Amino acid sequence: MKINVMDKLLSANDAWAEENRLLLRKHGITMLNIIGSPGAGKTTLLEQTIALLGKTIKMAVIEGDIATTKDAARIEKMGVAAYQINTGNACHLDAHLVNTALKELINDVNPELIFVENIGNLVCPAEFDIGEDGKIAVLSVTEGDDKVEKYPLLFSEAEILVITKLKLIEHTNFNLAIALAAFKQLNKKGEVITVDSCSGEGFASWIDFVQDCVLVHKIAECFK
Amino acid sequence: MKINVMDKLLSANDAWAEENRLLLRKHGITMLNIIGSPGAGKTTLLEQTIALLGKTIKMAVIEGDIATTKDAARIEKMGVAAYQINTGNACHLDAHLVNTALKELINDVNPELIFVENIGNLVCPAEFDIGEDGKIAVLSVTEGDDKVEKYPLLFSEAEILVITKLKLIEHTNFNLAIALAAFKQLNKKGEVITVDSCSGEGFASWIDFVQDCVLVHKIAECFK
What we know:
In chain A, 44% of the residues lie in helices and 18% in strands.
């Protein structure tokens, strides 16, 4: 019984995800789904990305949160349109919620690139396809090098792993080699970038990745 | 339809939670449910608690994880019995899973105190009563001071908020006053303790809290 209900939910979600993919193709938009723990540095990554790339690429952001509009306010302060979704008690964004946001952003902004900042959570968001071109896994060094193995679904599905808060590594027992080995074990083709949002370290690689993705997307689909 | 399914799941869960409460009362056991993000420092808090209190109070730990038995291994290395639950893709422990673990631990160890380390997640674990005496919210300073407001259910229900990784605060923009004000807004009676597991700072207060809880429990119920 429990499995049937879950199957039905996922199948309804997949239909909406397909709808989102068609909408994105039609309007030539790349959509990246950013997933990580609460406080992994997802919003800060977006703020820095907007600062470095906001004048080159027309962006918009869909912000998923249980409560508050704090993250959307941070994005809008950077001059980029943000659509805030508050899920109340749901631990992930689903494709239907994203569909409503997409339609509004296409109508109002017509962006080339949409970042979806999913609910802060390493479990549920990875289980729901929202029609994105790729999943971006964000992991901060302060969370520990064991998290890749402990939350395998996200890390096996991500197109790229962004390891954040690099300047704090000396104050932790995070072993980069252990995290990278675990990621490679789960994910043969995923890239890894290490960044620090305060010093700007590693951002050149991240910006290259984002730009390549949008460029490639203009010719074919980005990742698939 | 979705709401009815959720209601049924929660009502079945509540029956098992009540079963757990009866079992705990019968055996004079205090059970504390530890909830926080991945990497908030829950297992490290338990390791330090065992080091400081393991000879005074007979403890056991129920470890909830999506995958791996890493956390149970860390607890057993400290000389305390641990029962590992791997949920696969479920983002929380439910009362039925905990019931199986409880029965085995009572049979094997007969502890006075059981810590449940829930799945690393600020959303789902707070939604499921497992029959615990109290919820312990764990938040690390590296996650940011906005998390209390962004994940209100856990912080409104917790008996105590343990703020961890205090020595890292100088490397972050975490404002303790903001986090405390948000917590007090949501939770009139909850205590707050700040700790650092490397230096041992704040652990005297945490150990007092745990000891008081077990002592009080011998006379009446701990929190209710």
